[in-house]
Amino acid sequence: MSGVRVLVGTKKGAFILTSDGKRDQWNVSGPHFAGWEIYHMKGSPVSPDRLFASQSTGWHGQVIQRSDDGGTTWEAVGNKFVYDGIPGTHQWYDGTQHPWEFKRVWHLEPSLTDPDTVYAGVEDAALFRSTDGGQSWQEMAGLREHPSGAKWQPGAGGMCLHTILLDPSHPERMVIAISAAGAFRSDDGGRTWKPINRGLHSQYIPDPTAEVGHCVHHVALHPARPNVLFMQKHWDVMRSDDAGESWHEISGNLPTDFGFVIDVHAHEPDTLYVVPIKSDSEHFPPEGKLRVYRSRSGGNEWEALTRGLPQSDCYVNVLRDAMSVDQLAPCGVYFGTTGGQVYASADAGDNWAPIVRDLPAVLSVEVQTLP
Amino acid sequence: MIRVVLPPHLRILARVEGDVELPVEAIEGPVTQRTVLDALESRYPVLRGTIRDHVTLQRRAFLRYFVCGQDVSHDPSDAPLPDAVARGEEPFYVIGAIAGG
């Protein structure tokens, strides 16, 4: 019987949650790398027992870990992230220019075809690639060197490159997102990039429709329809039907369109999930009710999913990389909270139950569907 | 033998228990912050970048170096360390700042 492996990154270590295809009994492994922040873990689609983990602390900087046995054992690989050439400056909080400084890896995205190739999205925003299983890293400098780079600025969490989407039908196409610069696309394997932010409206920047400067929180796609992109922006849930050339709002009847996560059902490209958060100044669910909202129409019409989720006195947040789906039928949906719960639904969101309740604050959740 | 005391996170990362002992012959030149850390990183490559920046070799901001009851973090990295460290009587401490949560 097939199963799932849920990779959970937290503020104080990594946890691996496994279950069979029923997804009702769980084994919890961890903490791995206890005491370290694990911003993200992800497995190779072509070699699922190969996992990569981003491990860091403010004291000791960045470490990258790799497992080749599904997380039982780990090996520290390369942690040398050096910008290509003289990295220049970007906009700082006070409007002055500030040098690019590497701080940490926010997101690791293994190649869809090569188990030795993995991409890293880092703070200060840049994209790195390893082609030797994480032993060495080279910056794909065409992104940072985009002429708009000097206008990029950090969001409250830092100037992070947090989203990396690989297009399965166009191997040379990648979409990334930076807070707070916006989304960018490459059609030539990462050599050159263009901002893809037309249609975004951000009233908190001087020109609300500027080419860059938007605080994009997360972007998702369905692999069978990669031209359609879904975005949770700082405020607004957005959709593009042309690979980011233009965007339109699909917030519809959401109780608030602020939030961090967004994801797509594994088998229904027009079924979306978001977790509305009250506001940018109150990072918790409206009314103290933790609700996942699902749209079965590609946006605009949303239904609250509440069964099994706390509906009173709940004041957790769900961070941008902390939702994922499995490939089973029915589709499983998973998300983690800053309160240390990881919730799972084995029926596409109709019913939820916590896998674990008391982990450190969850930073990221990824799911692997195992044969 | 030169003794180095690492903070707990780095002991786990380097998979060592207790103090690290570096043979004197592993030190290239005088016993200084730089040569001790060079020898440490040579023996435990996983520690590269976790104490000093990979490129500039600057000490990471939240770490300090203590020897013989003194904070030598701001001393020149090529200044000789006390003889007691070179003789292995006193360890070279890498200390994590009491900060964060």
Descriptive account of the structure:
The complex is a heterodimer of chains A (371) and B (101). Chain A is mainly beta and 371 residues long. Chain A contains no helices and 30 strands. Chain A has a 4-stranded antiparallel beta sheet with strand order 3-2-1-30, with no helix packed on it. The radius of gyration of chain A is 19 Å and the shape is globular. The termini of chain A are close together. With 101 residues, chain B is α+β, with helices and mostly antiparallel strands. Chain B contains 3 helices and 5 strands; from the N terminus they run E-H-E-H-E-E-H-E. Chain B has helices spanning 8-14, 33-43, 83-86, and strands at 2-5, 20-22, 63-67, 70-71, 92-96. In chain B, strands 2-1-5-3-4 form a 5-stranded mixed beta sheet, covered by helices on one side. Chain B is globular and about 30 Å long. The mean pLDDT of chain B is 94. Chain A binds chain B through residues 34-36, 57-63, 76, 79-80, 82, and chain B through 7-10, 12-13, 46, 48-51, 54-55, 60, 62-63, 96-97, 99-100.
